[in-house]
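ok so i was messing around last nite and threw this chain in just to see what happens. nothing serious, just curious
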Amino acid sequence: MPSHPLVAFYEGSSPDYKGRYLTDILTWSHGQLEASHNYIQTLFPLPESSMVNLAAPLVNEEVFNAFRDRLDLRERLRDSLGRMLWFYGLELVSEDGAPEVIPGIKFPTSTSTWRKRYDHNHLRITRIIRSLRVLGLEEEALAFYHGLLEHKGVGRVSATSLMYWQRAALRPLNIEPDMEDPEQGMEGEVGVWFLREWERKKNGDQVRKESGGDTEGSGGNGNEEESGSGAEEVGEVEERQELGSSPETKDDHATHLETEDDE
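result:
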């Protein structure tokens, strides 16, 4: 049976719907990556459809499982991340085996693509963070998010964009960044079904681990609270600070989404 178009694209056996191979896109110049708006949806696919690019293939259960089962696909996805980090003036390094995103050689000249109040690259960044997590590069997604927070500059990126980056990085996978917070107790009932099942299994594994004698921490919610809590604090504090000086609403983001063509 033929591979899903996204799997075939990352295997290198098929081009995207515009006839471009992964190896082609990964050699594009800074100008090409900025000017073209119809590659990012295949380079970093999502389970949710794009409002402006209906031809973009979506992550389904087959793609989700393929990337999580196959190291070669994740390595090529990491190559895609590396190219976009280069575009943003950043670099992925490994410190004691843990990925970290730091300023790269082009940091002084390339950060103008995203270190500003609003830009279509903010939408790309939200997509990239979520796609990495969905396709099995959770650590790299969090490294990217933390790197953005650390190197964004004071007051340059809008609180709205910071909020969506935080949602992409820290929410359960079944809850997409554009979704308003579900009602309490309904978190596991929304979103794509295979992501709901993944989160249920992950939470079940965590409960079994804790009930099996893991006495470190302060109880059943210890690891949940620990995961990303520092990042949440940073995001919330910065959000409040920026909102205090320049109030923004979700309507701002919605209007921006409607006029941009990267999502």
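not much to say yet. The first helix runs from residue 5 to 11.
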